Amino acid sequence: MREEGRISTWQLATLLGSFLIGSSTILFPTAKARQDSWLAVLVALVAGVGASWLWLTLTRIQEAPAVSGILLTLGPYLGIPLAILYLWYYLHLGALVVRNISEIYVTAVMPETPIVVFTGILVFLAALAVRGGVEVLGRLAELLFPLLVLAILTGHILIVSTPRLVRWEYLLPVLENGFAPVLQAALSMFAFPFGETVLFVNLVPFTLNKACAGRPVIISTIGVGLLLTVVAALHTATLGADVPRVNFPGLALLHEVNVGDFVTRMEVLGIFVWTFGTFLKIGVCYWALALGLAELLGLEDYRVLVLPLGVIMASLSILVYDTFAAMTTVATSLYPFYAFPFQVLFPLLLLLVAFLRRQKKKAVRPDPKMARKEQ
Questions:
Q1: 263: which strand partners?
Q2: Predicted local confidence at residue 366, as pLDDT
Q3: Tell me, what's the pLDDT at 374?
Q4: In the predicted model, what is the mean pLDDT of the chain?
């Protein structure tokens, strides 16, 4: 299969960071933890680092993108059904992210515009980037990731600088209801977004220095995780008990920014972060889907599949939810259990089988010294 693009380890790290920022700052599925939401994000971050180690180890053994690695590890009879399930997951996740950002535009920016307009534009632009290959996605992330981080930091510095907006007492008492609600919220936060980084099994094989990919991946995961922890704490410290009742907490906070009656209404920072963060996340899902399907079908070039898959993804994003409330309910209640096999169970199974096959090959390989003695 022809895939000429390659990315550097820095581009891999920025793609991962943009992927984690993506739509995770639109929906924070930590309402059950209440004032301990920031603690739930920290617990999810620890689990997310473990998940990153899992799929990094898997890529070192398989040395192939997800679909090829599955087929090499399990063979065609077991591998093809699992590969199809993963392709569905990539498609479904991409559709969910498209719907997340489209809801922002329909609800808060241009409410009279049909959602299909935003969906179509997003998927079309993502299709152009995906057709350019993984190198285009890497260069986009290299350009946009520092701007995303800068926009997030600037927005939250302005929130803290606005008089009487932040009330740190809202963060107390810590663990008022015990650790169980924190664990429940951490499960949701792990599934969305930390566990979703399993898609990067497809990207590591196209990294220029694959042996050094682990450190930037872990550093990027920890850095963005700590940033999301600060964001969660600030949401709670400003909105308090009202966080679960606000559709877009980040947008509501930026709307309240007022520094010296001069710097006001900074919603544009939030729109910038969500637009470009989700665009890169859509691009990763879209590219992994097109590449994986081409591998499964034995095609020479995945680009012939890009536009048809884009139509399917855009259509699914419109059909997948009826309302924003349904989207929030699924993200917090159902999605963690639906995604857990793809993010943890199946990679563990593949790693175990790949390790056993590797050990078996070592066991049956003849010893060179014994072979020379026999000669």
A1: 259
A2: 57
A3: 53
A4: 89
Q: What are phi and psi of 260, to 5 degrees?
A: 65, 30
132's tokens = 């350019």
Residue 273 CB partners (closer than 8 Å, separation 6+): 21, 25, 148, 151, 152, 155
What does the chain come to in residues? 375
Tens digit of each residue's pLDDT (9 = 90 or more) over 247-285: 788 888 888 898 887 888 788 888 889 899 999 999 999
**Domain boundaries along the sequence of the chain:** 9-374
Model pLDDT, residue 2? 52
Per-residue model confidence as pLDDT tens digits over 182-237: 999 999 899 989 999 999 999 999 999 888 899 999 999 999 999 999 999 998 89
Specify whether the CB–CB gap between 8 and 206 falls below 8 A: no
Q: What distance in Å separates the CA atoms of residue 52 and residue 200, rounded to the nearest whole number? A: 9
State the Cα angle at 348 between 345 and 61, rounded to 5°: 145
**In whole angstroms, what is the distance from residue 348 CA to residue 192 CA?**
19
Higher pLDDT, 70 or 239: 70
Domain 9-374 annotated CATH 3.30.300.30 = no
SS (H, E, C) the chain: CCCCCCECHHHHHHHHHHHHHCCCCCCCCCHHHHHHHHHHHHHHHHHHHHHHHHHHHHHHHHCCCHHHHHHHHHHHHHHHHHHHHHHHHHHHHHHHHHHHHHHHHHHHHCCCCCHHHHHHHHHHHHHHHHHCCHHHHHHHHHHHHHHHHHHHHHHHHHHHHCCCCCCHHHHCCCCCCCCHHHHHHHHHHHHCCHHHHHHHHHCHHHECCHHHCHHHHHHHHHHHHHHHHHHHHHHHHHHHHHHHHCCCHHHHHHHCCEECCCEECCHHHHHHHHHHHHHHHHHHHHHHHHHHHHHHHCCCCHHHHHHHHHHHHHHHHHHCCCCHHHHHHHHHHHHHHHHHHHHHHHHHHHHHHHHHHHHHHHHHCCCHHHHHHHC
The answer to whether 22 and 192 are in contact (CB under 8 A) is: no
- Out of 57-71, 145-159, 331-345, 348-362, pick the least confident: 348-362
CA–CA distance, 30 with 336 (Å, rounded to integer): 12
CA distance 188 to 206: 30
